[in-house]
Amino acid sequence: MAAQRFYALDALRGLAIALMILVNTPGSWQHVYSPLLHAPWNGFTFADLVFPAFLFVVGAAMFYALRHSQPDAATFSRIAKRSALLVLIGIALNAFPFQHDLADWRLPGVLQRIGLCYGIAATLVLLIKRQHLPVLAVALLLMYWLLLQLGSAQPYSLQHNLVRQLDLALLGANHLYQGFGIAFDPEGVLSTLPAVVSVLLGYYAAQQLSGRSAGAGAVWLLNAGAILLLLAWLSSQFWPVNKALWSGSYVLLSTGLLMWLLAFMLWLADIKGRRVLLKPLVTYGSNPLFIYVLSWLWAVTLGLIPAGDSNLYQTLFTLLSQLLPLKLASLVFALAHVVMFWWLSRVLYRRNIIIRL
Length: 357
What we know:
Distance between the termini: 28 Å
Number of strands: 2
Helix content: 55-70%
Low-confidence stretches: none
Largest sheet: 2 strands, antiparallel
Shape: globular
Mean pLDDT: 95
Order of helices and strands: HHHHHHHHHHHEEHH
Strand content: under 5%
Number of domains: 1
Radius of gyration: 20 Å
Number of helices: 13
């Protein structure tokens, strides 16, 4: 029997890419509504849900892509190739427009993390019985927590956490993100471990939904989300919610919320039959990698084009800010990009053009 694939899963993928563009393309980083900014360290904002959503839908899509695959050399070769390509594209995006010396290129990043998580998670689901995935997820989070404790007397501090120490040793300070005031990368090597759990939970959710009706699936998502949110609250008492460290409490909190969001979308599209309301999101999710890469290149290119005393990116925002309050102008600027790339997604979708690695 073919695995059930709900419309809501494809809509969630589109929502993830739309929100990623919204969060990543404000008119000005100095004028952003606080929910669209990541928590400075411990804590949780709306923006902190976006990246886990992307990893969750990577896991969900992985279930359908690998459900008939065998753990053989050809399958692992395809996985390794796709994982490596995502990492290399991510490094190239960080380096664009290649004006800096190779010694200063940031090596970790969003696509790099997606690529590594995809490769590790895909390998695990092929090698481990799928009913054991929840146990594996718990084991990975506990292993990560233990490593943090053993690696530093201040395991959750910006300066002394093991994620930073390991990245400094493996990659060097110049290859890390500098936005925290010191060299620390929120997509670090060690913190990829709990991020893999976000993918595994997306895979597990799709697996559970595939054997259920829409109604039963929505109930399962609500119950599973409630359990994860309870575990997130309990674990946060000793392990702070922290996106930059991708803490276990953060994984549980974000995934629990995503399961509730998916339950709502499942109810709306697959139970109530209001698919037309989610169709724009399904369209948006049809070419997620291509749209993400293009949106990044577009924003950077606008910043390189001279315009007046500044660049085109800043000039366009300045024009908007003369009509609207600064934060609202910044939001409208970002929304304009969301709409623009939705239109491009729609053109590709209507022509049945799907760009994959």
